[in-house]
Amino acid sequence: xxxxxRVRALTIAWIMFSLVVSASSVAxxxxxxxxAMFKSFSMELAGRTLTVEVGRVAKQAxxxxxxxxxxxxxxxxxxxxxxxxxxxxxxxxxxxxxEKLYSVGKIPGGFTKREGKASENATLTSRxxxxxxxxLFPKDYRNDVTLDNIVMSVDPECSxxxxxxxxxxxxxxxxxxxxxGPCAMTQVGLIDGEFIIxxxxxxxxxxxxxLTVASTREKVIMIEAGAKEVxxxxxxxxxxxxxxxxxxxxxxxxxxxxxxxxxxHTYESCAIPDELFAAIKxxxxxxxxxxxxxxxxxxxxxxxxxxxxxxxxxxFAENEEWxxxxxxxxxxxxxxxxxxxxxxxxxxxxxxxxxEIRPLAAEIDILPRVHGSxxxxxGQTQILNACTLAPLSEAQRLxxxxxxxxxxxxxxxxxxxxFSVGETKPSRGPGRREIGHGAxxxxxxxPVLPSEEEFPYAIRTVSETMxxxxxxxxxxxxxxxxxxxxxxxxxxxxxxxxxxxLVTGATxxxxxxxxxxxxxxxxxxxxxxxxxGTHDGITAIQMDIKIHGLTRQIVEEAIRRTKEAREYxxxxxxxxxxxxxxxxxxxxxxxxxxxxxxPQKIGDVVGQRxxxxxxxxxxxxxxxxxxxxxxxxxxxxxxxxxxxxxxMIKTIATDFEAGQIFxxxxxxxxxFGAFVEFAPGKEGxxxxxxxxxxxxxxxxxxxxxxDKVKVICLGKDKMGRMSFSIKDVPEEA
Length: 733
Fold this sequence. Notes:
Blueprint: H1 2-37, E1 39-45, E2 48-54, E3 63-69, E4 72-84, E5 93-99, H2 120-133, E6 143-153, H3 160-174, E7 184-191, E8 194-197, H4 201-206, E9 209-215, E10 220-230, H5 232-260, H6 274-283, H7 286-293, H8 298-315, H9 326-343, E11 360-364, E12 372-378, E13 381-390, E14 396-397, E15 407-408, E16 410-415, H10 432-445, E17 458-467, H11 472-486, E18 496-504, E19 511-515, H12 519-524, E20 527-533, E21 538-545, H13 552-577, E22 591-596, H14 602-606, H15 611-620, E23 623-626, E24 631-636, H16 639-653, E25 661-670, E26 673-679, E27 682-687, E28 708-716, E29 722-725
Parallel strand pairs: 5-6, 16-17, 27-29
Antiparallel strand pairs: 1-2, 2-3, 3-4, 4-6, 7-8, 7-9, 9-10, 10-21, 11-12, 12-13, 13-17, 14-15, 18-19, 18-20, 20-21, 22-24, 23-24, 25-26, 25-28, 26-27, 28-29
Helix pairs in contact: 2-3, 2-10, 7-9, 10-11, 15-16
């Protein structure tokens, strides 16, 4: 019986063991199956490993790339709608760059503890991704496309922005969305004269160059740069160094597409029928369209086009298919006309030469009560800029992913009201365009700003667009320079900006570069190449194009043209308006005095829970900022109050020695003497015997609360308290 039970128990145990083994095997097989369902690709990029996983996550997107660069992880997806959006005449592309604070081990601030509005860096990164991608989609594609990039982990050694740029390109290339890629992006730094490919966060902080270049297989398609007066030839070399690296990345993307790429889907073309163009030309011959657009007055040209559009709408009133297309057809007719005039006839719509700048004007002190103001006019583009100075405590705090970028001392804000283009629409706050233009001007001017030690101010400039007809961002740079110099900000050199355009023909050699493009040439041209800098070098570049890239020849000519134009603007216009920064700040600007104290005395100056420093601020009406290194900034508009605050802080931060003379207030009276406060939170005792030359019975006979008295330090008494004397103060004191 017992043996039978043992056999039965062993049998059950064996069955259970078999089931466990079987389950484990199944689990392992499932795990192996999951691994087989996604593919991983790797390459070495600037000494770090770039890994792309396809098919691991986000499988319902049209294309998805799980990007790993070092320990930086970004999920990039590309998604398109099934059908085109009705009633639009543009390609509806949305690019998102989402910074998740968990990626750097932070919990968001605020009540909800969620990520909120996109940061400025996120907005600018979205723009940088958009600019090289957009030209590679079909021009007649009207399906909504969203490129989403979620930053999930950040390695300071590996840029999440660059990882997202590459991820968007890869996700789109392997998707079924029509796209004429691949394209690739590379960042370049410059340290001690050496180019650094994809610099780390720490390297970016000391680099003389922050350059991002996107390329197709043969050409450069996007340039974004900030620089510390980098010479033109060095900038060109850096651009094409990045272009070389991009070619290696493109080979890597080709390998991914070969294994994982989907067949591109067909789509409903929204191109204008040739029959409609032919019918329009019969009513409005090319010569008439040339006459309509050939004017330097924007309003006149728009009125001419409006009248032509009305005639065509009347002519095709019975054609329900053509009627909705007339607006877009007229636009394209204008575009073809302008491009032909420029490329074949070398005629610009406003009659200028190919390399001629529009009429220029510069003024300062337009706004009497602001700290500094300047206005710059280029043709029908006009920017009025105001400069505001404040203590360093007013610097912008940044809550982003880069631990090296926590504050921003210089802020440039750009506004584009609807009246500047003769339109009416409500203001909804700054959009991506406003943020982008402001950031470009900011990047152009930061290299020439004085250091905090030289000029201990936070600085804000605001560019108000008074009138717009092309290149407002570059006019904003010129106006800001004028405003800063008028405000007495000791910038090292003035900065000017100018934009070049491009019209191309059938071949790479058939092109014309235009200096100082107006709005029409921007709309209908192939390029907006913005360059800002000083006499000695480039401080910022931003290049937008609508074609599939630029040759080295075109890039070099555009940089040469902008150099010539920049020199002219600086020498002949801006420096004749104001040759150098004023040697003092505006009378309405706050004044700042800086002193240095022993860092160990900071606690004494601040006091318990800020009691001491708040008392100084209340008494003197100043603003006080103290750094961890003991640098104290005293800011105010009343010189007497600033001097008083300075005196108080020095008194508190100084080790007392016998013989020092102070002025203070009687704050307490005792039988044995009086306590005198000579600085907020700092008191010393005057013994009754040290109050007067003659014997007194009561302290109250000589002193009352609130009396102002001069005392001399006698050192410390037996109890370790500071001891003072009134009677021993020298008469000359």
